[in-house]
Amino acid sequence: MNNRSWIETNPMGNDSISESERLQIEQIMELEFEELEVEEVEDEESSDDEHRRVSAGASASGEYTYDTSLVTLHSYLGVIEDTHSRLAFLDGGAVLTLPLYYLEGVVLFPEATLPLRVVIPNFIACVERAMGQADARYTIGVVRVYKDPNSGRVKLSAIGTTAEIRQYGKLEDGSINIVARGQQRFRLKRRWVDVEGSLCGEVHIIQEDVPLRTPREAVGKLAPLRNSQANSMPSTHHSCEEGNDSDVMSEGSFENELSATERRLHHYALVSSNSSEVYDESISSDDERSERFYECQSERSPLDNHTRPVRLGLNKHNDDGNPGVGKMPFSYMQHSKKAGWGKHSIASFRDVPRAFWPSWVYSMYDSYVLARKAADRWKQVVKSPNLDSLVMKPDLLSFHIASRIPISDIARQELLEIDGTTYRLRKEIELLESFDKMRCKTCQTLIAKRSNMLVMSSDGPLGAFANPGGYVHEVITLTRTDGIAVTGPPVKEYSWFPGYAWSVAECIMCGSQMGWYFSATKRKMRPQAFWGLRSSQVVDEKL
């Protein structure tokens, strides 16, 4: 599906565009006469503020700096008009029929932008059907098509995304240029071709989960034991001040003041505290902590597992040969002194939260905690754009990262198929921490490293672009590559990056088209050149 026959688009008109877009298009047209300057992204170890940042406007010397938002306009598509359609989100679980648009090597996520150059008759029928359908007007279903490695047959992915056509333009030759936006994930139930040749499908809208947050009763000071004991035992106020001897419980009388339920919980809290010493800051990952935690568990019930060591200690004989019943074993006494149990009142104990799991276990599945961690990791690895504004919207953040993370289309399809914001964020954090190198999908030749990433678009280091032949490519931008050769002269027409000419780039080992080499049209432009690799033609290598 490689297309090297690029053509020039029709001249761009100004009658149906907004004033802001008019100014941006004028900047594009002036690139032939102005000098641009772009800051090149350096390695991960450098400071965040100095990397992958491009400022728009004029410098003191009158030079224009490169505005990365120009790339997201997809001005190479020519004149396209706004459809003024903003479809309300469909209910989760809804079943409807949509025209399907299948793409090779492209994975569309909710909130992501998809440019399309529609030239194939079947796809033209698909778009025209979407523009006129009564239900879910202006909406198409986008699915990734791939070749099964075992059978060699072409298949459609089971999970896709609805896309709303936001901009539409029909050319004299009958072809269509559109810009669509991802809306909701769906599960493809069945598909068929209608009488007009349009591929249609019955889709089931996936009900997205509500982002998980650690419940307050798990780590907060809610539902103290004194509330549950109000009807069964007299309420006696005890001061927690250390200077009040009359209210301080001695080590010998502390347990005797507890009910049977409180005594079991007290034993659990102390033994759990003993186990929690294992989970210190030296254990970096949550998974390692989880493994250490579960190693402490036995086949018995959770409460019995925590109280058993205490019971064993209480049943041992002391040095005088007397049973230790009624006395606390050494480990119990040690933790009582550490925790200050002998200096606090019974009322203070009854205010202890009664959560079974330690707080870090809840953090492993708290969508908001994971969103903060994912945004920070994105800032360290990719650096731009800044995702802090989406931390309080974990579901949108998970889709935003998935649609822009510079990895293969196979890995990104896996992210699309994950149900649950928490699990998607956990996988994205893992990928951001582990992905390191890119290899040619055909011959496995090493072609780039993570440190070679370059942000040339305000969307990030990965974006979708359409060529004149109707093919859509997801392109990863890089400062340098290895094992790739440039073939053919540079071409200025239909460039996805205004101010740069493109040339086809191929793997020197197998000859596969890896993407394109973009060279500056002006001598003082920075960077002078960069690479754009197709995500469908690379495989990821983890650390």
From TrEMBL:
GO CC annotations on file: cytoplasm; nucleus
Composition bias, Basic and acidic residues: 295-307
Listed A to Z, the keywords are: Cytoplasm, Metal-binding, Nucleus, Ubl conjugation pathway, Zinc
Tell whether Cytoplasm is among the UniProt keywords.
yes
Q: Tell me yes or no: is Zinc among this UniProt entry's keywords.
A: yes
Q: Where is the composition biased (Acidic residues)?
A: 38-48
Residues in domain CULT? 435-542
SMART domains in the record: LON (SM00464)
Q: InterPro entries of this UniProt entry?
A: CULT, Lon_prtase_N, Lon_prtase_N_sf, PUA-like_sf, Yippee/Mis18/Cereblon
Lon N-terminal domain segment(s): 98-436
Gene Ontology molecular function: metal ion binding
Comp. bias intervals (Polar residues): 227-237
Q: Where in the cell is it found?
A: Cytoplasm; Nucleus
Q: What is its main location?
A: cytoplasm
- Write out the pathway annotation from the protein's UniProt entry: Protein modification; protein ubiquitination
Q: Where is this region: Disordered?
A: 38-58, 227-255, 295-323
Give the domain of life: Eukaryota
Do you know which PROSITE patterns this protein is assigned to?
Answer: CULT, LON_N
Q: Which family does it belong to?
A: Belongs to the 4-toluene sulfonate uptake permease (TSUP) (TC 2.A.102) family. Belongs to the CRBN family.
* Subunit annotation: Likely a component of a DCX (DDB1-CUL4-X-box) protein ligase complex. May interact with pic/DDB1.
Functionally, this protein is described as follows: Substrate recognition component of a DCX (DDB1-CUL4-X-box) E3 protein ligase complex that mediates the ubiquitination and subsequent proteasomal degradation of target proteins. Has an essential role in mediating growth by negatively regulating insulin signaling. It also has a role in maintaining presynaptic function in the neuromuscular junction synapses of third-instar larvae.
**Name used for this protein in its record:** Protein cereblon
Which organism was this protein described from? Salvia divinorum
Its organism's taxonomic lineage begins at:
Eukaryota, Viridiplantae, Streptophyta, Embryophyta, Tracheophyta
